Amino acid sequence: MNKTLLFSVASAALLLCSCKSEFNAVYKTKDILYRYEYAKESYAQHKYNRASILFGDMINITKGTDNAEECLFLFGMSTFKDKDYESAADIFKKYVQTYPKGTYSEMASFYIGESLYNGSPEPRLDQSDTYTAIKSYQDFMDIYPFSAMKEKAQNRMYELQDKLIEKELINAKLYYNLGTYFGNCTSGGNNYEACIITAQNALKDYPYSSHRESFASLIMKSKYELAQQSVESKKIDRFQDAEDECYGFINEYPDSKDRSLAEKYIEKCKKVTKDVKE
Fold first, then answer.
1. What value, to the nearest 5°, has the Cα angle with vertex 192 and ends 174 and 247?
2. Can you state the percent helix, strand and coil of the chain, rounding each to 5?
3. pTM (predicted TM-score)
4. Are 62 and 36 in contact (CB under 8 A)?
5. Rounded to an integer, what distance in angstroms lies between the CA atom of residue 261 and that of residue 217?
6. Which end of the chain has fewer CB atoms within 10 angstroms, the N or the C?
């Protein structure tokens, strides 16, 4: 290691120690106003972790003072920008409850949704937080219908809804792929039936989804496979139902990549129905 690099490392370490020492001194000082201004300066300098610690420590100290409201809001903002979204959501909720008509109530209400939005998990995981985020944005728009942030809130809601739709598509595909495996059908159900119900509910709940064709294809394929597995007493009805589904799919998606499969199913359904009747 050359002398220049050694000097750089030593300087950086010295600066880090100096900054840490300064922060500790501020954190321990009894001069509350100085500590508060230091926290605001840290926030302005994007030192969000430091600001969050200081603001959080001063929440109770500033109660009843002119800085109480701003302190709570900046505590939420610094926590949010420090990417602790779960804690930030709780802080903004507390602000809205404490200051429903406060100076920052509109921003805090919006950032409840933003915090939950950023903490929303990927589609394969449980989506409880996603539902909560959507409700938070809806509550915000109901209270502030003319807010400059309304359009962003709406776009966030659409993104979150897409995530819910993707979750339902993953579930429907899983049921279809499980097929005749009955290990998970503890209540006597059927995976193809579960796929059909999941996909149909998704189409009902999200009629304008970009995944509409994928859900329709899964319903068509599942109805055909369900007919294939049917006992004799249900076979004709289920093959006719599958055939109708195939025709409906072709009518709605004439250029679909699954059109040839739908046509193939129709021919097989007609043949089975004819054979059974004979």
1. 110
2. 75, 0, 25
3. 0.80
4. yes
5. 10
6. C
Collect all residues with Cβ–Cβ distance below 8 Å to 271 and sequence separation of at least 6: none
Q: What is the pLDDT of residue 180?
A: 81
Alpha helices in the chain (DSSP H): 3-28, 32-44, 48-57, 68-81, 85-98, 105-119, 128-143, 150-178, 191-205, 212-228, 232-252, 259-277
CB 238 within 8 A of CB 226: yes
Instruction: HSE, CB side, 13 Å, CA atoms: give it for residue 54.
Output: 29
Confidence at residue 19, expressed as pLDDT on a 0 to 100 scale:
54
Pick the closest to residue 116 from 95, 93, 132, 97 (CA basis).
132
Q: What is the dihedral of CA 223, 227, 231, 232, to 10 degrees?
A: 130
Length of the chain: 278
Write out the two tokens for 100.
């429903």
